Amino acid sequence: MHKKLEQQVRLSIRDGKLNPDILVRLVDSSYREGDSRTHTLLDRLDDAVLVLNEENTIIDVNPAARKLLAIPQGPLDVLKLDQFIPDLVIDESLQHAQGAVLAEQKNVAGRTLSASSISCDVNLFVLKTGENGKRLCVLRTAAAAVKPETTKAQATDASEVFEAQEKYLAMMSHELRTPMNAVLGMAKHLAETDMTEDQLENVKTIIDAGDVMMSLLNDLLDKSKLDAGKFSLENTNVDLRHMLQKMVRLWRPTIEAQGLAFSLEIGDEVISAIRGDSVRIRQILSNLLSNAAKFTNSGSVILSVHAKPLADGKVEVDFSVRDTGIGMSEEVQKNLFNAYVQANSSTSREYGGTGLGLSISRQLAQMMGGDLVVESKENLGSIFHFIASFETSSKSQNQEAKDVDNVPKAQVTERAIAPLVAKPAAAPKPTDDSLRILAVEDNPINQRVLAAFLRPIGGEVVWAGHGQEALELLADSYFDVVLMDIQMPVMDGLTAAKTLRDSDSINVDVPIIAMTANAMLGDRETCLAAGMNDYVSKPIDPKTLYKSISKLVDEYRAVKQTSQQVCG
Description:
- The chain has about 575 residues and is α/β, with parallel strands linked by helices.
- About 40% of the residues lie in helices and about 20% in strands.
- It is built from 19 helices and 17 strands.
- It has helices spanning about 5-15, 20-35, 35-40, 65-70, 140-145, 150-155, 160-190, 195-225, 240-255, 280-295, 330-335, 345-350, 355-365, 395-405, 445-455, 465-475, 495-500, 525-530, 540-565; strands spanning about 50-55, 60, 100-110, 115-130, 130-140, 235-240, 260-265, 275, 300-310, 315-325, 370-375, 380-390, 435-440, 460-465, 480-485, 510-515, 535.
- Strands 6, 7, 8, 9, 10, 11 and 12 form a seven-stranded mixed β-sheet that branches.
- The longest helix is centred in the first third of the chain and has 34 residues, at about 160-190.
- The protein is globular.
- About 35% of the residues are buried.
């Protein structure tokens, strides 16, 4: 939602109603941009709001509409507007005019689903979202038009609610990720030591369970960001075919370990060079493949991809995941994409899950200009279609594979981060050219985890317990890189980074990598704005950390060498 529109909504929502123009723009924004905050805002209105298709079939309603028209909770049956307002005169000639008023009548007689009589003012507008036209109908009764003062006092600013929710989730994210960093970090380190077969199996179980917990936490955070409208997609070059081959290599062992056949089918018309968010594409496909494997006891799982060109120069890609699993009834499919809802209680007990994955995946697909739909019959398997539209890219496949999918070209080793050049003559340095790392971390458990991760790199690691101590160490001797926690006593990591960058310290330009359990949208940008060079979220992935250290240290030393040559 655009900021200006959001400000207008926030001001209008206090009265429990929106003027028609803002309401049309708000709902249109929801369907165009996948902005799920709209539902939260519409839930606060006293006016009954209905979203219709071009045949005037009701596809969405707010609580006020359910109350006014006596529509029960749960999925909407096939309901038509004329069931409730039979005498409404609609100008169908304007059905393709975005924002047009199709009907505007006062004191219209109507009836509820329970056959009670009502009288209300009716406004019917056109929403034009993509190829499928939608309409917005607002019903206002006399009671809604004259709103009691008590309701005004109860109507809090929606943006304040979102802000409080986001802060709470950020705090919970940090509190959960901090111990998970220790659990997963030390378990993975332990798995690399000499153990008996039974001990290794026990450690792997801990790691697998920890990975599941992190997946659940990430789902909750993604859902909160989507609901708060604080979620955006990247738009970078993607080598689609290369990405799909990587996914097959990743998922084949897991699926075939269950005795299932797994295959990838890519149509000849599918181009490689597109622009999109490769991380979120993989997230959706991983969720679909995980579900297919989970609910299939025998047979196969097939990932197939087809594409067709669109009139605007884009390409529509249909990713489908077919399985021969337990399938679903029509009743189950009605609730399948609802957040926090599982197929049924027995499925929940047998297969587990939060019911969030498919809801998130569908919202992401809609943000990509497409949708996520399912075809299924009980005991005959399911087919999930993830459809999205993408711009095409002119970059070559080879280049895309390098700079888009970020495929590591070599394992990071001590040699990979060895010095490229000597330090400037004036710089105090250790007796050899080994790497010097300043690790700033106040949590003793996380210190032990990080120490285990850094041990294979070699070199010297100096420890600081807070930002002020780090600044004092940075004022005395040179370092190649700083690993900086964010939330610490005395001085936090952001303040320490800003202070260093504004100083005349001998390490004023040293690379700083943020290590934080904060993982909300915008945290990375906050760290970079404070003068940090990179961001690694906890639980820390050692390979990600090694890669960041290698890249930043090489760049830093190359710059120092150039500076030395110029000054010399």
